[in-house]
Task: structure prediction
Amino acid sequence: ANDVDGSVLDLYKKTPFYAGTAGTTPFATSTVDLQTAEGYLIQNLAEPGNRKLILDPFAHVNALGLPGFQNAQAFGGTEVIREGRISRALGYDWAFNQNMKLHTRGVLGGVPLTNGVQPIATTLLATDGWTASIAGILKAGDIIKIAGDTNPYVVTADCTSTAGGVVNIPISNGLAGKTDGLLVACADNAAITVINSHRVSLALHPNFAAYAARVNEDVYGDVPGQQSRFPGFRMVWVDPVSGVPMLLKAVYQHFQTEFSVSCLWGVKEIFTQYGVRILG
Result:
């Protein structure tokens, strides 16, 4: 279950859009970070009224202390005080998840600058000025900003600097269905900054990503519902919480019974602009 959950949550690396400050847990005093995220979703044409907010546990605990949520009259109920939960507020379904990711940025180093004029739609950003010969100087999922351009960009693959301090950075603007790469042409020697390491919470529309799962055939080629060639039983079991279908199998052996649960699944980002990281 954690593997399935983690593969979905790992798609945070596909979106460059963010709210909040890296290293500062959100919702300590206000919901302003969610308001910023909502602004991105509106700007990116996400369908209104279908919003999900998945918080890391620390952000969740902060939110429980906000006066607006603890005020029964303002919130429309006593859920926060009685249950310590926020289910629906500010147009979002709220939830927390202990598997939310901690993004560790690349090691960085040097004074990185753009290397030459970079035109609109550039997806491999030429840069120099990095510390020489550093593996992992940037990591997939890092968010970069370029001086003179207000748009954030996400690094799509790990990078290593050359002996001359050059890094050609694969970037995405996160706007699926539109021309990828730079949205604004940048000049030579424009400064590059990288968002610090951060805990990830996500504000999103469900069309941010797709998920598919099916029951796998076991190694013996047995078919669910038919007699197995080995003593025991097999059945499809659907998790009532997540809806994930799994194959439950028991094989009777000498003085023991072996149980196994298996599943095949896959995830894929769809509309990356429908997801916004809330940094913590």
User: Anything to note?
Assistant: The chain has a mean pLDDT of 91.
